[in-house]
Amino acid sequence: MINLSEIFQILPLLIIGAGILLSLVLEMYSKQSEKVLPWISVFLFIIAGIYSLFSINETRMIVFHNMLSVGGNTHVFYFIFNIGAALVCLLSIDYIKKYGTYYGEYYILVQSSVLGMMLMAGAKDLLVIFMGLEIMSVSFYVLAGLNRKRLSANEASLKYFLLGAFATGFVVYGIALIYGSAQTTSLEVITAKFSALSTNLLFIVGVLLFLVGFSFKIAAFPFHMWVPDVYQGSPTTIAGLFSTGGKAAAFSSIIITLIAIFSNSAQNVFAPYLAVIATLSMLFGSIVAIAQDNIKRMLAYSSISHAGYLTIGLAAGNQDGVAGIIFYLAAYTFMNLGAFGIVAMIEGEAESNLTISSYAGLSSRKPLLAAMLALFMFSLAGIPPFAGFFGKYYVFIAAIKSDLTWLAIVGVFSSAISVYFYLRIVVLMYFKELSSELTLFESKTGLIAVIISSILVILLGIFPGSILQLITNFM
Amino acid sequence: MLEQYLPVFIVLGIAIVFGVATVLSSIIFGPQRPTTEKLSTYESGMKPVGTTKERVSIKYYLIAMLFIIFDLEVIFVYPWAVQFKKLFHEFGISVFISMFIFLVIFEIGYLYVYKKGGFKWD
Amino acid sequence: MTEFIYLTIILPLAGFLINGIFGRKIKNACPDSIGEKVIGWIGSGVIGISFLIALFSFFETLSLPADNRQTIVNLFNWIVVGGLNVSFSYQVDQLSLVMAMIVTGVGFIIHVYSIGYMHGDKGFWRFFSYMNLFIFAMMNLVLGDNFLVLFLGWEGVGLCSYLLIGFWYDRKFEKGTTADAAKKAFIVNRIGDFGFLLGMFLIYLTFGSLNFNEVFSRAESFNIDESVFNLIALFLFIGATGKSAQIPLFVWLPDAMAGPTPVSALIHAATMVTAGVYMVARCSILFASAPAIMTVVAVIGLLTALFAATIGLVQNDIKKVLAYSTISQLGYMFLACGVGAFSAGIFHLMTHAFFKALLFLGAGSVIHAMHEEQDIQNYGGLKKYLPHTALTFLVAAFAISGIPPLSGFFSKDEILWYSFANGSFVFWLIGVLTALLTAFYMFRLYFLTFEGKYRFSSEKHPHESPKIMTVPLMVLAGLSIIGGFIGIPEIFSGEHGNQFHNWLAPIFKSAERKLITYGSHSHFEEILLMVVSVIGAAGSIYFARYIYTQKSSIAVQISKRFSKGYNLLWNKYFVDEVYDATVVNPILNTSDSFLWKIADNKIIDGVVNSTASIIDVVSQKIRKVQTGVAQFYAVVMMLGIVLALFWIIFGR
Questions:
Q1: What is the distance between the alpha carbons of residues C337 and C418, in angstroms, rounded to a whole number?
Q2: In CA terms, which of A136, A344, C97, C412 is 20 to 30 Å from C55?
Q3: Phi and psi dihedrals of C80, rounded to 5?
Q4: Helix and strand tally (H, E) in chain B?
Q5: C582 exposure class (CB count in 10 Å sphere: 0-12, 13-18, 19+)
């Protein structure tokens, strides 16, 4: 039943799994858990992330009776999740102190959500995807409302849970229909039979419902309604995790499910659906973000529009599209976490300092933070030579190759709109007078996390070619 | 495609017809002589007191939920135990180790709930 | 060592980062001038190591067979999407090695000199970090194996030049501030860059690549109309005129003297301004395929040489004279390229780097001694106080005047000979005339500064510069003396005796095949022309000596008799004023009255603002959809699913 050699193939999963158990025991028996747990989590995430990065080249194989895949892009995703989560933990240390309500479960749940994400990215079976999805989602529901004395957190958690359960229902329904039509849940088999199955209405409807469920997780229009409310109510650091890790995990699942389409062995029957979703998400996100006063809500709408750009890569349905998505996800994870991190650092007690106007004149108070926030905003807006630009560029190029030039044009148009609200913050920081009542908190660990993100964003902007090649090599 | 499901529809039809028919036949053929005694909720029990919509303590749900979780997980152990000898022949000691790991994880969860006071009523 | 060539690029970058980030801290942490020493030696050390690496690579390349001396060092792929495939890779070959050694070698000497020159400046660390950044950009420019990396370096050196011209941003310079001079340099360079960019686009359109090897091999094999080549070469040359200060874009270089003198030596004499020459030589095959533009290059080079030399005759600012001299010498290099003698152009580029850097550093030493006084009319007799500076300056002046056997003689004479052999007698005549003028104004400068009577006030006490400044002068003087021997013309050294030419020959092989090579000229002709130019130069020197040490009244009389001509030269042919009147002011006026007030404010802003406000209104309306009611959210989701299902099921 257990093959020991297979066990070592899934070392990143084991590290995090064992980490969860260790953290649980510590949380039970130690009074010092608040001091110890964050660092243990950061340590484990970094170990798992670095290990994944360096084992990309190892033989790619499928282990545990066709359940999990190892190596290649799976490990690229593992890297994104783990490093992202490590940054979240670093940011959380002082954020939690600021709110004064510490629950040991915080870090344990972050770890378990990452375990879920990793299962989703490594799955080779629909049921494993579902299992990963549930581990991640349930952790997320609790994390959203962890600060249980705050009404807004309760609201966020409940809304997320209700709508999330609703969406999960569709995923399960989709899996059931796929199983019904393909007589298997193994993705290997489904991929092999994909083009034959594409004529089967039941199969198409099944995949569509599956996609709908994940459209909810990636926050695409019209399944995005939860996003602003949940991001606003949840702890800012956790909102950062939702928007990056959660989104990346959902995309990884969609990619591995539809891999037949991307490797050109099946026709992209979902292209129109995905193109429409992409268009609506981009435009809706960009346009509505303009009207937001709360920076977390603004970032939420920005997250919706980025889901749109990413979906362009799915609609393109070719290898370039997938490589573009993975690159974009890496870039987006680090720039968005950076932005959320700075928001978390500026945020005061009791959800103060969250309006956009509280960023006025930040450059004179906190030049380093302001410069880095400006960098993240430039990158999010897709201004070269930062990582965000190349992410969009690759995805658009993929769309043009698939004769979806109009979609790329809509994407460029939407990016142009988005420049307005991203740069508004930069303008406020650099060209407006200081808002005097702003009290700022120091956070050394948070600063480290943000600096790491900004370095990664710059690196991805300088070496996009090499990194894209790394990704395409392992398709 | 749909013809594959014909037996299902037939069963469904029979079930509906049977259910409706029995209820209807009892209404049509049965004698009906209602009295106050007969119409009360509990014909031969205690008199109902207060409202039916009473709130149950949250702790009840907590324990109920915990019960369901652990109960469901124990189900995994049954087929394993039944088939243990056969599996042991086939795969050796790893059969034992894998269930052992499962139970350890399980126990840590149990301990956690216990330590956090999940089973305390007060 | 060749495969580590990227270290020569990364090391200066590291120096820039170290000094840029920690420079202020180092300075504050160390007592007295030790901090300055640390910063200075970090800055110089990285360049020195880079030079050693370049030198080793040179010897390694030398040991390879002559036709196989190109090594591509691929660092990483930069942009790999669509048809465009650009990688960060460096091309080590004969040409780039020569350039790399000049840049790092001369750069190292000037860095060391700057430790003394910038002593006590409040922006000491800033200076060294900018200088290192410059070397980083310049090395990208000369080593890049494709046009995009070259362009990156091209823009990078422009930026550093801007930063360093305006280095003393709080000082006055002529009519404005140093910032104005920096701005002028930047804007004029942008015009050239625009041409270069257009050329690059055209190259990509025509050849489908930006990689040197691919473009150049396709330029030979593809059947492309000559007019396309003409256009490409013309655009590239416009870029070169901007960077290398040729007519009509030379106006920024004299103003660039607002920067510290080592900057003038390194950037505005020895290296950056020669980037245009390097680029033309690198693209020799493209230029060779466009004979009409070759003529344009030669004529522009020649005119610039003469034009700048005449202005140099009357200027009184020591650095201004040297600046015009630089423009003039760059003209020579373009003349060489224009007549197809690319290796002669590069040879002159190298010797010029030695003696012009020496002249500037010597001038810096004088300015240093005279407490920032730059007017040569207020110098005189400084030889007594500055013996080392005077001697090395004299060597450089002889070298630039083309007196044998100093380096300038070999390189300048080779150019003059090719301008006669491949060009025409008129080219040669103007070339020689310029050479005579050069000898004259250089020695005017020398005699007015170092010989004759003192003309400075007695409050000034000139003193020789410290060793850290004079040793670099001596090293450069040595190079100026012996630098020419690697390129002794064949007439003296026999068939294939010109080592420098042999070294570069494989690079220009394909270009030379396309060009009509020299007609039959006898050795007698060559020697005759050589003798004429040398005698002429010697005569000019003697004439200058006569006027400026014995009969100084002659100079005054000449300037009075030809007051109109003198005025014209003194005011630099009024080029700045003409540009102001014909280009700058009209643009300013239109931009102010029309573009800004009407086109920008009314039309563009109107369109942009109304679009923005429409989107704003739409946004405000749509945000109301977000009611906060979870049931409504679920309904929206349900609607989406139903629509998608209908579409998929009935749309098939």
A1: 10
A2: C412
A3: -130, 65
A4: 4, 0
A5: exposed
Residue of chain C nearest A271, judged by CA positions: C648
Q: Do chains B and C touch (3 or more CB pairs under 8 A)?
A: no
Q: Cα Rg for chain A, rounded, in angstroms?
A: 21
Q: Could you tell me if C624 and C532 lie in one domain?
A: no
Residue at which a domain ends, from C570, C600, C626: C570
Side-chain-side CA neighbours of C625 within 13 Å: the count stands at 20
* C201 and C70 in a common domain: no
pLDDT, tens digit, for every residue of C156-192? Answer: 898 888 888 888 877 777 667 787 888 888 888 888 8
Count of pairs with CB atoms under 8 A, one residue in A, one in B: 24
Residue C49 Cα, gap to closest chain A Cα (Å): 26
Distance CA A139, CA C495 (A): 83
Check residue C596 and give its pLDDT.
Answer: 66
Structural domain that includes position C611: 576-650
User: Residues C15, C152: one domain?
Assistant: no
* CB within 8 Å of A242: residues ≥ 6 apart: A140, A144, A230, A231, A234
Q: Could you report the per-residue pLDDT of A92-121, keeping only the tens digit for each?
A: 998 888 887 788 889 999 999 999 999 999
Q: Would you tell me how many other CB atoms lie within 10 Å of the CB of residue A337?
A: 30
Determine which of A27, A28, A200 to mutate to test the interface with B (most B C-beta atoms within 10 Å).
A28
Dihedrals phi, psi of C87, to nearest 5 degrees: -120, 155
Collapsing DSSP to helix, strand or coil, C86 comes out as: strand
Tokens describing residue B1: 């495609």
Q: What is the pLDDT of residues C530-553, one digit of tens each?
A: 899 999 999 999 988 888 888 777
- Which ipTM was obtained for this model? 0.84
A320 part of contact set with chain B, CB < 8 Å:
no
Residues C384 and C281 occupy one common structural domain: yes
- Closest partner CB to A2 (pick from B98, B111, B115): B98
Q: Give the Cα separation of B9 and B24 in Å (integer).
A: 22
State whether C314 and C242 are in the same domain: yes
Query: How far is the C-alpha of A174 from the C-alpha of A203, rounded, in Å?
Result: 9
CA-closest candidate to residue C75, choices C25, C172, C10, C168: C10
Spatial separation of the C-alpha atoms in residues C266 and C331, rounded to whole Å = 18
C223 and C85 share a domain? no
Cβ-contact A409, A282 below 8 angstroms:
no
Amino acid at C347: F
Query: Which helix (H) or strand (E) is C44 found in, with range?
Result: helix C34-62
Please name which of A445, A387, A360, A421 lies closest in space to residue A88, comparing C-alpha atoms.
A445
CB burial of residue C373 (10 Å; 0-12, 13-18, 19+): middle
Residue of C nearest to A285 (CA): C619
- Report pTM: 0.70
Rounded to whole angstroms, what are the CA distances from A173 to A204, A205, C448, C535? 12, 10, 96, 99
| Residue C505 sits in the same domain as residue C528 | yes
* Chain B residues within an 8 Å CB radius of A29: 115
DSSP C252-290: HHHHGGGS-HHHHHIIIIISGGGHHHHHHHHTHHHHHT-
Cβ pair C615:A229 closer than 8 A: no
- Domain end among C91, C119, C143: C143
Domain count, chain C: 3
Answer yes or no: are the C-beta atoms of A181 and A200 closer than 8 Å: yes
Separation in Å, CA C483 to CA C241, C349, C505: 27, 11, 19
d(CA C580, CA B102): 85
Cα–Cα distance measured from residue C417 to residue C431, given in angstroms and rounded to the nearest whole number: 10
Together in a domain, C177 and C118: no
